[in-house]
Every structure is written in C-alpha cells, then in structure tokens.
Amino acid sequence: MWDNAALLRAIANALFGFSVLAALYGAAYYAVHLPGLFSLQSVQLSAAPQRVAAAGVLQILRRETNGNFFTVDLEHVRQSLEKLPWVRSVSIRREFPHSLVLHLEEHQALAHWNNAALVNKQGEVFSVGTDRTAASDQPLPNFTGPEGTSAEVAQRYVQFSRQIAPLNWRALQLALSARHAWQLRLDNGMVVELGREDVQQRLARFVEAQGTVDLSRMKYVDLRYRNGFAVRQGDRG
What we know:
The chain is of the alpha/beta class. The chain has helices at residues 5-32, 54-64, 74-81, 150-164, 199-208; strands spanning 42-45, 87-95, 99-106, 109-113, 117-120, 125-126, 142-144, 171-176, 182-186, 191-195, 220-222, 230-232. Helix 2 packs antiparallel against helix 3 and helix 4 runs parallel beside helix 5. The longest helix is centred in the first third of the chain and has 28 residues, at 5-32.
C-alpha cells in the first residue's frame, strides 16, 4: 500500500480536508460562544397577552434566556413559559441576528370544571390557581363529569346550546354522570334529564314542543321516554 502514490495522495487529501473542516468547526464554535457576540437584545411578542400576566413572562425571560442568539435553549424557555397561568402553548423562533419572537396562545375559558378547575374551548382542563375572576367577562357555566370526559362534555355543551337557542335560554350547568347520563340546568331554573341515548334527538323533540306547550312554566323535564316527556311544575323533590 505504501508504494501506491495515488492512494497516499488520496489519504493525505482526505486528512487535510478533515483537518480544515475541524478547524472551521472549532472556529465557528468558539465565535458563537464568545461573550458579547450575537448577544440577545430583544424578545418580541407577536401579540399582547390578554390574560397572561406580563410581569410573569418578563420574569421568566430574564431568568431563562441564558446564552446568546445561537446558544439560548428555546425548548427550556418554552417549557418554563407554559407553566404560567392561562398559557396554553408557546412557540419561539430566532430572528437573526439579535432577537427572539415569542407567540403565546392563551386558554379561552369555556366553563368551570368539577368546581376545581376550568375547561377551555378545546375541551382541555387547566388550572389557574386562585385567579378565576379573570376567566371571562360573562359568568361561566359549570361542567361536571368523570375524569377524562372534559372534551366530550364541552362538545355536547356546544351542541345543546345551539339546539336550545330558539328558546332564548342558556345552559348554566351540564353534568355527565358515571353511567354516562346527561343533565342540563338552564338559566330559567329548569332541569332537563336527557339520559344516555339519542340525547340530541330527545332535546330536539323537546324544543319543537314549544309551539304547542308552554315550556316556560316547567321546572323539571324528563326526556327519557320514547314518545314524549314527563314534566313537573315545581322543583324536583
């Protein structure tokens, strides 16, 4: 092999090329990590937060944005910001040469959940500690249900609300029992038992009865009947 001049030249060229690449990598690595070079000078918010406390965001950015434009750990910063109340998700991108652009997606509260947390419009349960007064400009309905059913309850709430809209009533409570039975409580005090099966059809039949029956006088309605429904004029008891 050592008598093969062509092979020796190829090996030498390869070693030289590798040495050049290693030297360039080392120089680039050193330059990127030089103090003051490509330092972060600004973090821009794509939109002003509505419910997330700006002071909390600023505190995390000051604490977690260590390093420069290239070395700052964006994933770590993102995870830290997503622990803040009202933050649903965070995306961060670099804007060369000295800036980060930050997008915060906030939770949009749809209802209270099991008297212990909130549920957003995507049906996800989230907690904001004691800061619930800022949940909405309007009173929120109450959802109750077994663990892991928040998305289903949120979806049903939207469906049921759309169905009762012609009656000019609003659902204040929606409950899903452990046996998967549904119950609505409306803003006029009426309790509506929907049961477990064909719930949308049952509710539609009830709404259609408005033309022939004065529904406003009813306080308790049981729709778990095949061809009709049972009512009570007073409170259930």
